[in-house]
Amino acid sequence: MSRSKQVNLIRQRALTEQVVPASDAKQRTKLLTNIRAVVFDIYGTLFSSGVGDISLAAESDRDSAMRATFAEHGIRLHEMAKSLRLDSHFHTCIHASQKKRQAAGIAYPEVEIREVWQSYLEQLQKDGMIAPSTEVDIETLAIDYETRVNPVCIMPGLTTTLEKLQSRNYTVSIISNAQFYTPLLFEAFLGQSLAALKFCLNCSVWSYTLLEGKPSMRLYEDAAECLAKYHKVQPEQVLYVGNDMRNDIWPAQQTGFKTALFAGDSRSLRRRNDHPDCKNRLADIEITHLEQLLDCI
Predict the structure, then answer these.
(1) What's the distance, CA 248 to chain centroid?
(2) Structure pTM?
(3) For 185-207, what is each residue's pLDDT tens digit?
(4) Within 13 Å and on the Cβ side, how many CA atoms surround 217?
(5) How many CA atoms are closer than 13 Å to the CA of 14, on its beta-carbon side?
(6) What residues contact residue 135 under an 8 Å CB cut-off, 6+ apart?
(7) What are the phi and psi torsion angles at 163 (to 5°)?
(8) 130 and 161 assigned to the same domain
(9) Which range marks the domain in which residue 21 is found?
(10) Lowest CB count within 10 Å: 116, 135, 205, 237, which one?
């Protein structure tokens, strides 16, 4: 399937529920001086998602979505597979990939979902669960399933916020738990690629390319190194915006970034008050709408 068709699939299955601030959202803003770069999380910050995060983080019953995806791509199930939880087998493959990385000393391993899908289908065929079939387009298959289990929509104010940050010449980039299809969200909902939207691709950090995820410090340290290298921006000149105190705010602060907790989506806000790293921690500012950032820098 072409890239344009993949983008259309994401758009057609967009989340239709209204985005509303968390019930305990607390707008708390102030002017942050000497900020030269704004770095964003994606899921739950720039885009609202059905599970509040990238779907790999959730393991609810998704068997019907898996079967519908198989049917869409001509993958025929044998009789013995009809009583099994196919999504459970899928999560087993994800965990197996993560354990390999953990064994190599990675505390917060990430997967490359295309490799997981390939391994998963090969195992199902080996176990006699699916019939041999013509070659499957793994990327489109992964997007098909993801959009069924985790539809997304644009966060209110995103377009205006990005336009005004660009007009003020801020460097804008990303640190995100993500997969290969995550950048397609911008094309699906804003009609432009990340490059066209003037995100710095040299400074953007994606968990699936590192095979390491949040809250690993490596993502933030890599971002800080690239911002210094390509833009001569120091950590204290960076504002990082995210929705999760443990995965976003804590490691960003450890890196020396200023921080903004985004509380504008009830599905995604994660205060983590019971976590020792977050119990008495505050972001520099807390916002309930993305455009509030523009009054703080």
Answers:
(1) 12
(2) 0.95
(3) 999 999 999 999 999 999 999 99
(4) 6
(5) 18
(6) none
(7) -60, -45
(8) no
(9) 3-53+151-295
(10) 135
